[in-house]
Amino acid sequence: MQRRDARLGLLYSAPLSLFLLLTFLAPILLVAAFSTMPEKVFNLSQAPDFSAYRTVLAQGYWKSVAWSLFMALAATLILLVVCWPLAYGMAKVFKRFTLVLTIGVVMTLFVSENIRLFGWVLTLMKGGLIEGYWRHWTGTGFDAPLYNGPIIVFGLVYVYLPFMLFPLAQGISMVPDDARQAAYDLGATRWQILREIDLPLAMPGIMVGSLLTFVLAAGAMAESKLLGGRAIITIADEVQTAFTYGQNWPLGAALAMVLIAIIGTVAIWAISKADLDKMMGGKS
Amino acid sequence: MKTSRFATFLLVLYGLLILGFLYLPLVSVGLASISKARYLSFPIRKYAYGWYEEALTSDTVRDLLVVSLKVAGVVTILSMIIGFFGALAFARYNWRFRKTYQKLILLPIFFPQTVLGLALLMWFNALGIIPSWKTAIVAHLVWIAPIATLVVSIRAFSFDAALEEAARDMGANQWQTLREVTIPLLMPGVTSAGLFAFLLSWGNFPLSLFSTGADSTLPEWLFAKMVSGYSPLVPTVGTLTVATSAILVILALLLAWAIRKLRPAT
């Protein structure tokens, strides 16, 4: 039986593994190879000279990297605070409402990010849903809070909310009620319970949610383009510009490698910590 | 330590506020689509449905719809097949590299999609493949097939291995076991995975952007129109694509509910 398991496991994993080998690993290796080429070439026949990486360092692209990471971090921290009460409610308080919230939040994931961000533009612009009605009722208008840095973070918070909410709710549901009850009986305040019981015991969920949000937000660019009016240019945007308008594949590849290195390190570290059998199947 | 009624009330209120926050931009898009004015400004003075008529009879929109449906349709079928086998390897069988496999297939989900699209464009170029809606299927699958696998896996984890053993003990061969036991048991998971795959492919923009070549999907067209200035067709077509997803989800939920209601009776 064990030998059959070993054989069938390997056999059934083959379609997905082979597919990803050819369409995920191979393209990344190709990007890695291109990043070492002299700038502005479109094939791999030249001798590698790593000049694109020197350009990355010399041209101030580190600013885009730093901004992307900073905005991703800000969005992650804001989401942690915003999602905590709701995740707590979903895990411990609500009954039927948890299902309503789950379906309601998951459904937004199926709507193109573009349309949702465009909807925010229509909501926030001058003469948009909020300002238009405000002026209609009060007679005084105000400037649209669009096309700046903070609105990009707002966009990230909006788009990646589900990726924080669900892992957090999963984490909080693993905090045993007995432990909270015992702390309460021993005279702990609500704040002490949060700090000493809830936060440490829900830590796996907090980590998964935070890392997921951070990694996705660090590679984002639609928020900056649509809401931020490119007030801050993200690293993913720089990669795209180098490939398209710049017609500089090696530079784009080098920038992509920087982004892949950062995201890959965080993601691989996070994934290596997770026990998927336990998280998904309840088995240990 | 029960949560007080008042605290529960506040939490429910907070939940409703968050839902409102998530859906507010879609309300704006919906309202904009029925405004008569060519240049949108709230409050809307005159309502009209003319833009819908124009969108539904437009040849451009029909071509976009065909491309989007072709891509999402093929992605759905392939994701269901790959996800079915992928999930058995993920959750059901104990084999040597299972833990490694479980982790590696998660990586594409975290990967920045625009960069993945560009990397695939270079890869297709190196292989001499001209991008079209067919290459978009590949690009979507890199991201969606792992997600489909995870969705089926949730079902596969609750799979009772003894059922397969029993079938085999009674003389079923491998193919019969698969057909009579494994596939029917995992079918609900495979169906959910198909629904996820269709909806994610239907709404995806960043992967399509560089992988469709001369063809264009609905989200791509919407983005191009959004950045090149306001057109009343954008909220209209946007609302139509959102409505398509919503109707699919509602149908699926109703179907799941009906099946659960009917099952005890049979």
From TrEMBL, chain A:
Localization, UniProt: Cell membrane
Residue intervals passing through the bilayer: 12-34, 65-87, 99-125, 145-166, 199-222, 249-271
Family annotation (InterPro entries): MetI-like, MetI-like_sf
Keyword Transmembrane listed: yes
Transport found in the keyword field: yes
Database matches in Pfam families: BPD_transp_1 (PF00528)
Topology of this chain in the membrane: Multi-pass membrane protein
Taxonomic placement: Bacteria, Pseudomonadati, Pseudomonadota, Alphaproteobacteria, Rhodobacterales
Origin species: Tropicimonas sediminicola
Listed name of the protein: Spermidine/putrescine transport system permease protein
Location (main, coarse): membrane
Domain ABC transmembrane type-1: 65-272
Alphabetically ordered keywords of this record: Cell membrane, Membrane, Transmembrane, Transmembrane helix, Transport
GO biological process: transmembrane transport
Superkingdom, taxonomy of origin: Bacteria
Homology family: Belongs to the binding-protein-dependent transport system permease family. CysTW subfamily.
GO cellular component terms listed in the entry, alphabetical order: plasma membrane
Database matches in CDD domains: TM_PBP2 (cd06261)
UniProtKB/TrEMBL annotation, chain B:
SUPFAM superfamilies per record: MetI-like
InterPro entries: Bact_Polyamine_Transport (IPR051789), MetI-like (IPR000515), MetI-like_sf (IPR035906)
Pfam families documented for this protein: BPD_transp_1 (PF00528)
Membrane-traversing stretches: 71-93, 105-124, 136-157, 178-202, 233-259
Lipid metabolism among keywords: no
Cross-referenced CDD domains: TM_PBP2
All copies of domain ABC transmembrane type-1, residue ranges: 65-259
Protein family per UniProt: Belongs to the binding-protein-dependent transport system permease family. CysTW subfamily.
Topological type in the membrane: Multi-pass membrane protein
GO cellular component terms listed in the entry, alphabetical order: plasma membrane
Keywords: Cell membrane, Membrane, Transmembrane, Transmembrane helix, Transport
Major localization listed first in the record, in broad terms: membrane
Any Gene Ontology biological process: transmembrane transport
Domain of life: Bacteria
Location of this chain's protein in the cell: Cell membrane
Protein name: Spermidine/putrescine transport system permease protein
